[in-house]
Write the structure tokens for this entry.
Amino acid sequence: MKEIAYSFAIIGDVISVEPYGEGHINKSGFLRAASGGITEKEVELLPYSAYLMTIECGMRFLTDYLCGDTYFITKYAEHNLVRVRTQLKLASEMEKKFGIIS
């Protein structure tokens, strides 16, 4: 079960949720791929895992920016800072939709 939970966390950043009728989100692509190998609690936490991965990525961009842009390739001086702001905006939008996607 640890392996499934770990895989679940790793692919959290590539989960795509699409509107599927009023107040529902189509998560079936991931669930089909998981083939019933995840718990009901893990399914419940799918939206939160995507949110968490978004915040984590933003923190990584910020850390890289503060350390002199040594990890992520940048095209201009504040590229990673722009990425941080984008990730935080996305996380904010996700927070607003938690009632819909959970």
In short: The chain has one domain: 2-101.
